[in-house]
Specification:
Blueprint: E1 2-8, E2 12-18, E3 24-31, E4 35-38, E5 41-44, H1 46-61, E6 69-76, E7 94-95, H2 103-112, H3 115-122, H4 131-141, H5 143-148, H6 155-164, E8 168-170, H7 171-175, E9 180-181, E10 186-187, H8 189-195, E11 204-206, E12 211-214, H9 217-223, E13 230-236, H10 237-244, E14 251-257, E15 261-267, H11 274-278, E16 284-285, E17 292-293, E18 296-298, H12 302-312, H13 314-323, H14 327-333, E19 343-345, E20 363-365, H15 373-397, E21 402-408, H16 415-425, E22 429-432, H17 437-449, H18 456-463, E23 466-470, H19 474-487, H20 490-500
Parallel strand pairs: 1-6, 6-13, 8-11, 14-21, 21-22
Antiparallel strand pairs: 1-2, 2-3, 4-5, 5-7, 9-10, 12-13, 14-15, 15-17, 15-18, 16-17, 19-20, 22-23
Helix pairs in contact: 10-17, 12-13, 13-14, 15-16, 16-19, 17-18
Length: 501
């Protein structure tokens, strides 16, 4: 018997099957391209995502004849939304999280309800990225799509509906729409009325780990699954990943370095403070009932490294291909051994928290004729780490304890990067046995929904194990503190200029 978690991300989709001890039995991955129609418009093709989902389910499932899947948990990126007709056919592309076309729609909410009221209801700091702004943009700019839309699903409920015929979205992902009441745990009548969007256009909201239906018999036959398979809500990829990293209480936070670099701490009492709002930290339900979480994030974590690879590292890519190793491993192996007086502001698609400034731009400051590619590589990694350190400090100042980091995602594959994280953060960084934390979190939730575990906590204890630990190097930690003080000056110095361009 096995459990499967699907992680439908911004650049690709992954399905991973686990046994009840959390060991990987099979996995499959497919990527898909981002569609960039204009400079600040970023989309994904719904049918491309669905094709990838079917392919990873078929490939991973084909290796499980001895361990049939009993439940599939679905987790996905947040905010990204599309429109579908009555038959579930897509009417437009998904508008991706970091698409910046919705600045005007965010301004509407500032005038209509104000930042404080939005935060009090939804737990979301007002920002263009949230799904309700994208729906408003469609309403105002694509009236043909809005008129014919039967539903506006995010990625999780889009995939769930295709798998079992039911539109359902869990609390964690519903919160990322900025149309969900995080106290009452239902769609906000006040928000939807102001937007002119009927509730029936949104999916049914349920807790993470809810069995929604069963894999459609025709799909089950097509994909090669031998028995009935339950389809289960997972969650927003960050809190779902935190669960898969073993986070079940306060004091520990997940740091996921994928396309986005994010930190997700968990706490017991919702912290709807003015300071949390000022620092743009969302407060929303966690994947465990009764707990809450927030996320600090930099929108260009691994995305920045990919840009660097694609733009400047052709030689490393070729060498990596010849050596049959990851291009990222090759690039990181060539970085400078020590920090340099070179600073990278990793705001290449705008800033994440705590400033949430869509006008901010990336910058490399301190270039000299003597600067080498190794120096630039090291400074890119340090810049990504500094941005996360800034979030850790702000979260602690808001009363959220963070004493240990559990590192997951693509960046967690690199020992060198995790050592630098530990010294930069000044905290122990632990690496779980399974870096596929989002899929594992979704699988744990599937196990709870299908009766393999009596609680989420029991599922985590059974399936999550820590493999490695990285402690701060004291000399490097002190050096990083000095460099961090200078790094903090970058954004304020450049903010006005970046907005002007």
């Amino acid at each position: 018997m096995s459990l499967m978690g699907i992680d439908v991300g911004t650049s690709g989709c992954k399905a991973v099957a686990f046994d009840l001890q959390g060991r990987i039995l099979a996995s499959a991955y497919r990527d898909y391209p981002l569609v960039q129609l204009r400079e600040d418009w970023v989309e994904l093709e719904p049918e491309g995502i669905w094709k990838a989902v079917l392919e990873v389910l078929r490939e991973a499932g084909s290796r499980l004849s001895a361990d049939p899947v009993t439940g599939i948990g679905v987790s996905s990126q947040g905010e990204t939304v599309t429109a579908v007709d009555e038959k579930g056919n897509s009417l437009c592309n998904f508008i991706v999280t970091f698409d910046n076309r919705t600045i005007e729609q965010a301004s509407f909410w500032e005038k209509r309800l104000g930042r404080e009221a939005i935060y009090r209801i939804t737990g979301m700091p007002l920002h263009p990225m949230y799904s309700i702004n994208k729906i408003l943009w469609i309403k105002e700019n694509r009236p043909d799509v809005f008129k014919n839309a039967s539903r506006f699903p995010l990625v999780e409920d889009f995939v769930i509906a295709r798998l079992c015929g039911e539109y359902a979205i869990d609390f964690t992902l519903a919160a990322r729409t900025m149309a969900f009441d995080v106290r009452k745990l239902c769609w906000s009548a006040e928000i939807l009325e102001a937007a002119g969007v009927d509730e029936h256009l949104l999916s049914r909201v349920v807790p993470s780990g809810t069995k929604v239906g069963e894999l459609h018999p025709l799909l089950r036959a097509e994909l090669g699954f031998a028995q009935t398979v339950s389809i289960v809500t997972g969650g927003h990829d960050q809190p779902c990943g935190a669960l898969g990293a073993g986070i079940i209480g306060s004091g520990t936070a997940m740091n996921a370095t994928g396309t986005v670099d994010a930190i997700c701490p968990v706490f017991e009492n919702p912290a709807f403070s003015a300071k949390m709002l000022q620092d743009n930290y969302a407060v929303y339900p966690y994947t465990i009932p009764g707990l809450y979480c927030t996320i600090g994030f930099n929108l260009t974590g691994g995305l920045l490294l990919k840009w660097y690879q694609d733009t400047f590292c052709g030689m490393e890519v070729q060498k990596a291909k010849e050596a049959c190793i990851s291009a990222y491993d090759m690039i990181l192996a060539g970085m400078a051994n020590t920090p340099k007086d070179l600073y990278v502001l990793p705001h290449f698609v705008g800033s994440g928290t705590p400033d949430l400034d869509p006008f901010s731009k990336g910058a490399i400051v301190g270039l000299r004729i003597s600067t080498t590619k190794a120096d630039v590589t090291r400074s890119i990694i340090d810049g990504i780490n500094f941005e996360m350190k800034l979030n850790i400090e702000r979260l602690r100042a808001n009363g959220i304890p963070i004493r240990t980091i559990h590192a997951v995602g693509g960046g967690a594959k690199s020992d060198a990067w995790l050592r630098l994280k530990a010294s930069c953060f000044g905290l122990p960084v632990l690496r779980p046995r399974t870096r596929e934390a989002v899929s594992l979190g979704a699988a744990v939730l599937a196990g709870c929904a299908t009766g393999s575990f009596s609680s989420v906590q029991e599922g985590v204890q059974a399936m999550v194990a820590i493999q490695d630990s990285f402690e701060p190097d004291e000399k490097l930690r002190v050096l990083y503190e000095e460099k961090f003080a200078k790094f903090r000056e970058l954004y304020p110095l450049l903010a006005r200029f970046n907005k002007s361009i």
